[in-house]
Q: What sequence folds into this?
């Protein structure tokens, strides 16, 4: 089911980088952001985690709790982030339950994945490399498209966005401005 405003997100049981087998309803706050991307080894996804970590205080001050959803295995994320404490939880969906249930489809080709955003992708990739990130292990679906959802405490959708290409997501600045 593709989510839209007014619908309710399923109460998935998830594993995160911080805990195992927890229902979303047990961990969400009054207002929540679900930033859905590819996997921890993806250079630009890792950069997203880095920027969201740096800017989390601004998100939190606006009353939001953040969750990053990735296709990565829980143990892999825990190993990769052992030296970097994140102030939010990373939901590890290496079984694709969330992606499939919410119809967060992959692109059908590399051309669709990049779309008309090649310049934005190159710019973000450059920033990621400047910050010291390089491509790591491949996991999940390399053609996975992103999504962004905001919910209330009952998981009712207040905002839903399905990316049309890998860069079709708000920047962190735009996200903070939106909330």
A:
């Amino acid at each position: 089911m593709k989510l839209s405003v007014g619908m309710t997100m399923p109460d998935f049981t998830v594993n995160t980088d911080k805990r195992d087998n927890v229902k979303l309803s047990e961990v969400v706050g009054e207002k929540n952001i679900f930033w859905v991307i590819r996997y921890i080894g993806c250079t630009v996804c890792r950069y997203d985690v880095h920027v969201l970590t740096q800017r989390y205080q601004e998100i939190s001050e606006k009353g939001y709790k953040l969750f990053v959803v990735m296709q990565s295995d829980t143990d892999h994320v825990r190993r990769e982030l052992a030296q970097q404490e994140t102030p939010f939880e990373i939901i590890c969906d290496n079984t694709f339950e969330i992606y499939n249930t919410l119809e967060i489809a992959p692109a059908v080709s590399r051309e669709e994945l990049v779309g008309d955003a090649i310049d934005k992708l190159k710019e973000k990739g450059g920033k990621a490399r400047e910050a010291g990130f390089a491509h790591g292990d491949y996991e999940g679906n390399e053609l996975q498209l992103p999504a962004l959802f905001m919910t209330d405490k009952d998981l009712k959708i207040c905002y839903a966005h399905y990316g049309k290409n890998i860069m079709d997501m708000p920047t962190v600045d735009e996200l903070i401005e939106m909330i």
Notes: The first helix runs from residue 24 to 27. The chain has a mean pLDDT of 95.
